[in-house]
Design brief:
The structure is a homodimer.
Chain A: E1 15-21, E2 26-30, H1 35-42, E3 60-64, E4 66-68, E5 73-75, H2 85-93, E6 101-102, E7 112-115, E8 125-126, E9 136-137, E10 142-148, H3 160-172, E11 177-178, H4 181-193, E12 197-203, E13 210-217, E14 225-231, E15 235-242, E16 248-255, H5 265-274, H6 278-301, E17 308-315, H7 317-324, E18 344-347, E19 361-364, H8 374-383, E20 392-396, E21 401-407, E22 410-416, E23 437-443, E24 450-454, H9 466-470, E25 477-478, H10 480-492, H11 505-508, E26 513-516, E27 519-526, E28 534-538, H12 539-563, E29 570-574, H13 575-580, H14 583-589, E30 600-604, H15 606-616, H16 618-630, E31 632-633, H17 640-648, H18 660-665
Helix pairs in contact in A: 5-6, 8-15, 8-16, 10-14, 12-17, 15-16
């Protein structure tokens, strides 16, 4: 960035020492130099939208006075010029916090220490919530820039755009600029209304010329917004994010309307294969849903859609292709070739986004492989396993589990076909995580009696007032985290053996183990007397969970093989579902490798977080692309050992590795129920 | 461009001398080197679409045998390898002309002279029709490229686009590639159908990455087409042009539908000012007309719209802005600021072009100034006054006349508000140039009797069979070139004086000079007896022509002043109207400066020619942009001398400069008719 068109500084020979904190950058400047100019020439990160015209107040600084032995300087009270009329007006109209000066107005009169507060830094850090999260450094692709454009001159008949480009070059160091036609069509009016001052939203996220996404007459304060969108098979989640400070203004999710074409990814691929034009139907559906989401987020936040100038998308490969309008058929068969895996910079109109700024830009994070999508890339960007000192396993649990394993020495990735059991599908009483769904289960090992909690109610089922609190809808089914806890608790209570068989009432001593065909089921909840449902955990349910968790574990194990390790240091559970899983129960089930207590962390919607990081930082987009290139991909479908691991992981817990950490925490009973029903070595746990 | 993936050349130490004609490039190559490879490494302009796979036959060469004293070489009969199977198959299937070889198949065995025929050169010259036209060197922005793409590999899961990019880099030296989503959506199918060979239409017209505009499985021969479009105020003309050889496949014109919003430019600007959204109506109308024109040209040529991958637009500034969707209001008032004057690279969809390839690219030539548009830039590109050894005046006559004056030392440009009189408007019997319009007029100086020709009939009005030939529509009016000839002939015949006054029948001795109000009119044609029109040249018509020609001459004179010259060496009349003007009559009228006989040339639709040149050559686009930057613009509206010249040019001929060349050719009578009607110094020309 070049020097700004500040008011002329008097040319005096006397110089003063200027030290900026927290950067520590220092230099000597002629007395009379504006602070902003000094900051610019030292490369100090001091914001400015108006380019030093005393309008935007983004360049506020806090001069420090007195003795600074550390810096070897004494700052006199008159080290800066007195408040000038511009600062006085700004303070009167909008208020300037005590001790603050406008960097473009205050001039250096003597040696001085100047602190740049975080909110005046362009590249300020946004601290994320969790303690071990790295802060995000703001580096958005789009900035507001106030420019002063030369009026037209009949003797030098350049166009308004050409004079705007020249002004951006001189005043902001922007070498080349283009403007889409809809923006160009508003340029002349804006320049004249703003009396040759105009604020432009300038996108500089690509290698080519900067793009004027929008413009406003005179000074426009913003803020501008972006959408971080995670297009999941089931849910589309979006965060409306302030592009100045990274704060989330509103968040919302909607069901992915593609569900009507198929519950899981492969059934959607099948739909596209079986129905000519089916891929286009699904593309239309998901784009409409995303645009609707953008519209409702803007309405919720009370902003114009026009203020949304960017969007970042993350999604698994099938969602990625359907979003882009590409038939996903190749992703349904070996060798699972992506049409494109690279990061994409698009325009909003390419994806039919009509509710955002008409020139809005879209960035799609890169896919890692045909089975490991941009959502996994976003998880990697949020969790940065490549920066981890210890060996971390990151698992994003969904219909497919994306698994990352690595540390500073390298990262491996694979995808494992867990199927939708973890999302409550293929479970007899299964349902999505919605009010009325059982999400927590405890079974008394002594009595075999359960208690549980349902989504939307804070009480356990054995607490007073539960029936009233749960409301007339009552208990409706069991969701993914609920079935995991149920099976793990059944295993802990000795109602299920290592092979996954449910014992009979006789074998287990629990009347809740009821016959069902040639097998048994566990009666978790019976509301038939009140006309409600009878919720059972069936042998089929346990088989479904076993298949899903075996696939997940086998995937993790395959990466451990490739890495040549028998254990990992810690586990991160990503995804909305991951946030609700009890680490202990997941370990009892054998979903994840055995790690010390406390070494399993939920990262929440890490894909969404990665999308937000990429939205706030072009550097992060580059890092994501570089990271994806470095990640070593393991294709589970062609690894013979995957099948071995899968079979070995069928036991509860798995039979592959020892689990000393788990064994130190819980005592796992070891009954064995054959299919016929007679107990073999079963241990009665009923007391008394 | 890097070396191609030709079949491996055997590594032999023995080398042979290869001389290419007509370039004269020569070099020594190991025996066994394919001719195409030798040509590539010497930078010889030898075409290839298939990259040396013996499919496209674009690299045909004609080896020369025998003694070549000029080159100091003797070429033996076995200087090239014998025909191989690929050439034999090609000859069998498609036919190879006698003496031709495929450059990618024939290998060098001994010293050889190889002629590259014009049709095998990428940058071949397209000879234009007129004798003094410079040839156009083909250098299109879009090329067809056959590439062989690596099949996908599960162990290295890059996407198809990434592997296509890599193949284009290795096989064609293209460093970076992008593909719009609609193209990307067809990539996977095309690659698999073509068994990993695909032909891409690759646009390399910008500074950024190459763009895949379209693709076809396997080898696609083309050709690709482009549209050269001249959007005039009255007519939109388009040429469907073959992008391989520059030939015009079909041409068509339609009326500009904006005429319903205003006949001339200023009335359209007024419409936009008076009617909110009026500019958008006009934008929609012109875009629809252009798209319809594209559709009918494709239909006429029997090609798919998909084959049209580029378009170049030229137009005056108001048409330019309305085409781009920009309100032209600023162009209607000083300082006549363009929204943008630079060359633009757009997508077809930006202009609503739905009948061409969906990824088609659009190039808009730069405007010279707010009154001198991209059409004038196109005229400059076609005529290249900046390359002229002598001083040339180029006049593009329309509602506004664009005027260029210059030679190798520099070029000046201005626009002059001639008004629509030259197009037949504002003339009592005026009409557009259409069948039935009088376009040629001769008046016998002795008798004052006229004869004329009308558009659509080859006979003069005094020739036998005229009445039948002109058909039932008869003579309907007088068009621009007709009125110019009529006035000039009236002046020659002594019926009009130097001031532009028509004499009475008494003063002139011609009964055709009939009273009309307080002035006189000349009866050119009277068909009232047959129920037809009575076509008069009125005093008002002459005033209108005087205003128009004065404006034109004053503009030219202003440029001559700026250049400091009193005369020009030659005049080029551009524009469809210019093609129909008689140079002698234009000089008599004083429209153009006096130049020697034969020094006035009609360049036809030079703007359309310039558009075609830009369509065929990205180098020409760059030259046009550079030329426009170098042209010095003169704004007639603010030059005080324009008014002086305008007044002085009112006389017939003008009173500004001497006209010795004209005087040597014709004797101009010098009557003087005052408004009252009495002859003053009038000279009777009637004989006998």
């Amino acid at each position: 960035m070049t020097a700004q068109p500040l008011a002329d500084a008097p040319a005096l020979a006397r110089e003063a020492l200027v030290i900026f904190t927290p950067s520590g950058k220092r230099g000597r400047f002629p007395v009379g130099t504006p602070v902003l100019q000094a900051a610019r020439s030292l490369g100090v990160d001091l914001d400015s939208v108006c380019g030093g015209r005393g309008i935007c107040s983004k360049c506020q600084v806090a001069p420090q006075f007195g003795e600074f032995p550390k810096h070897g300087v004494t700052v006199a009270a008159d080290a800066l010029s007195a408040w000038n009329a511009v600062e006085a007006r700004y303070d009167r109209v909008r208020g300037l916090p005590p001790g603050r000066r406008l960097g473009c107005q205050a001039r250096i009169e003597g040696d001085v220490v100047i602190d740049v507060p975080p909110e005046s830094q362009v590249h300020r850090q946004v601290v994320r919530k969790a303690a071990d999260d790295r802060p995000v450094v703001m580096d958005p692709a789009t900035h507001l820039r106030l420019v002063e454009v030369e009026p037209p001159d009949m003797h030098e008949p350049r166009g308004d755009l050409e004079r705007l480009s020249e002004a951006l070059r001189r005043q902001w160091g922007i070498e080349a600029v283009t403007a889409p036609l809809p923006v160009l069509s508003r340029l002349q009016t804006a320049l004249r209304k703003g009396e040759w001052q105009v604020t432009v939203a300038l996108w500089t996220g690509g290698a080519g010329p900067a793009v004027v996404l929008d413009l406003w007459p005179g000074f426009f304060e913003g803020p501008l917004y972006g959408l971080a969108v995670d297009v999941g098979s089931t849910t589309i989640a979006a965060h409306l994010t302030n592009l100045s400070d990274g704060s989330v203004r509103a968040s919302a999710g909607v069901m992915n309307p593609q569900i009507r074409f198929g519950e899981d990814l492969m059934s959607r691929v099948s739909y596209a294969m079986m129905n000519p034009g089916g891929d286009r139907e699904m593309t239309r559906a998901v784009r409409e849903a995303i645009d609707g989401l953008a519209q409702s987020l803007a309405a919720e936040a009370g902003i114009e859609g026009r203020a949304i100038v960017e969007a970042v998308f993350v999604c698994n490969p099938v969602m990625h292709h359907l979003l882009l309008g590409i038939d996903p058929v190749e992703l349904g068969q070996a060798p699972f070739a992506l049409a494109t895996g690279g990061a994409l910079d698009l325009e909003g109109r390419d994806l039919g986004l009509g509710s955002v700024n008409e020139a809005a830009r879209v960035h799609v994070l890169p896919c890692i492989a045909g089975h490991v999508g941009a959502d996994a890339a976003a998880v990697a960007l949020a969790e940065r396993p490549d920066l981890s000192e210890d060996l971390v396993l990151v698992v994003d649990v969904g219909t497919n589990a994306e698994i990352l394993l690595g540390d500073r020495s390298g990262v491996l990735a694979c995808s494992s076909p867990t199927g939708p059991a973890f999302e409550g599908a293929q479970i007899s009483a299964g349902q999505r995580a919605a009010p009325g769904a059982i999400e927590r289960v405890r079974i008394d090992p002594a009595t075999g009696e359960p208690r549980f909690r349902v989504i939307g109610c804070d009480l356990w089922s054995d607490e007073p007032g539960f029936a009233e609190a749960v409301g007339p809808g009552g208990v409706t089914g069991i969701c993914g985290s609920g079935i995991i806890e149920a099976v793990a608790e059944m295993r802990l209570a000795g109602l299920v053996d290592r092979a996954g068989l449910i014992g009979s009432a006789e074998q287990t001593g629990s009347a809740r183990c009821v016959p069902q065909g040639r097998t048994h089921a566990y009666l978790l909840h019976d509301a038939t007397a009140a006309g409600g449902p009878r919720i059972l955990v069936t042998q089929g349910d346990i088989r479904a969970i076993q298949l899903a968790k075996s696939a997940l574990y086998a995937g993790a194990r395959l990466l451990m093989d490739a890495r040549g390790v028998e254990r990992v240091d810690r586990v991160v559970l990503a995804g909305a579902f991951g946030a609700h899983i009890s680490p202990l129960h997941a370990t009892i089930l054998g979903m994840i490798p055995d790690v010390p207590e406390g070494a399993v962390r939920s990262a929440g919607n890490a894909a969404g977080t990665g999308a937000r990081i990429a939205l706030c930082s072009v550097a992060a987009r580059r890092e994501a692309a570089a990271l994806v290139r470095r990640i070593q991909k393991i294709e589970t479908a062609i690894e013979p050992r995957f099948q071995e691991h899968f079979v070995a992981a069928n036991a509860i817990p798995h039979a592959t590795d020892p689990f000393p950490h788990l064994a130190a925490r819980v005592a796992l009973p070891e009954p064995s129920f054959n299919a016929g029903g007679a107990a073999e070595g079963g241990r009665r746990r009923r007391r008394g």
